[in-house]
Amino acid sequence: xxxxxxxxxxxxxxxxxxxxxxxxxxxxxxxxxxxxxxxxxxxxxxxxxxxxxxxxxxxxxxxxxxxxxxxxxxxxxxxxxxxxxxxxxxxxxxxxxxxxxxxxxxxxxxxxxxxxxxxxxxxxxxxxxxxxxxxxxxxxxxxxxxxxxxxxxxxxxxxxxxxxxxxxxxxxxxxxxxxxxxxxxxxxxxxxxxxxxxxxxxxxxxxxxxxxxxxxxxxxxxxxxxxxxxxxxxxxxxxxxxxxxxxxxxxxxxxxxxxxxxxxxxxxxxxxxxxxxxxxxxxxxxxxxxxxxxxxxxxxxxxxxxxxxxxxxxxxxxxxxxxxxxxxxxxxxxxxxxxxxxxxxxxxxxxxxxxxxxxxxx
Length: 362
What we know:
- It is a single chain.
- The chain is α/β, with parallel strands linked by helices and about 350 residues long.
- The chain has a single domain, classed as Aldolase class I (TIM Barrel, Alpha-Beta Barrel), CATH 3.20.20.70.
- Helix content is about 30%, strand content about 15%.
- It has helices spanning about 35-45, 80-95, 155-170, 185-190, 205-220, 245-255, 285-290, 300-310, 320-325, 330-335; strands at about 10, 15, 20, 55-60, 100-105, 120-125, 130-135, 140, 145, 175-180, 225-230, 265-270, 295, 315-320.
- The strands form 4 sheets. Strands 3-4-5-10-11-12-13-14 form an 8-stranded parallel β-barrel, surrounded by 4 helices. Strands 1-2 form a two-stranded antiparallel ribbon. Strands 6-9 form a two-stranded parallel ribbon.
- It is globular and about 60 Å long.
């Protein structure tokens, strides 16, 4: 019977256990969106597989200046950012950990104050998202986007490819492409957002084309064995209305991904950070269609994780918020110890308080 603390190999990456630290935006990068020593301490605290995660997926990290959507989130497109991440990956590896970076383009979930001068957010559509993002001074409504021209899309795909190469230069064990939660890739996938009439819109194949081209480019650069993908088939996050046929859409995507032999697929079940049963969806069918290592996420407890692994419904289980306030979450789950509750007020931005000052068990 598979257990949470059994080892597993995903693609080219050997993990000591199946407990994954999910990507968690914390808004603590330094000037220039550079990862700093405080971030290094934060990740290293959670990296020892004897007490923490078998795999860390970093907070979402923008692939380009135009991909940023929130204040003080890190990037991986400048030399200084690559160097900052290198210090983190070296520190994680020194304690026996494994770490991949989540590659992110927010699309229309952004604000003009966060983008290069004169730029507006880009998306599959020119329709603004109903929602807010985090800028200097607090939360503000998302700025109206412009729809990417067909001829612009290859350059965005190239940004993903270069970011993956930068990740390997920075010492990461691999990358996870962020295709979930209403960000750019999801804005192309869903017919509730994508209103294009070109080759990247219309039916399922057209709407999936951008994702497929991104994944082909990343795999071509660093190999499928170091490439993961995150999807959220039914979550309504960031004004992402439901696709009219999410099961059909995901079946097509799985068919297109199969030849790439990805290291894993990271799937959010239900509403991100909310109800697991928000909409009907057959995750088992999608898992079978994918055929590779399957990572599940959303509201899992230790018992739920063990049941999913034992039944074959998952190969890995990702935990998000519990890792914020429990740097030794692995040990606590193994020993059945109580979990520390996080301070919600310190989730986004700030310093060490509510970030690196949560104690481990004695």
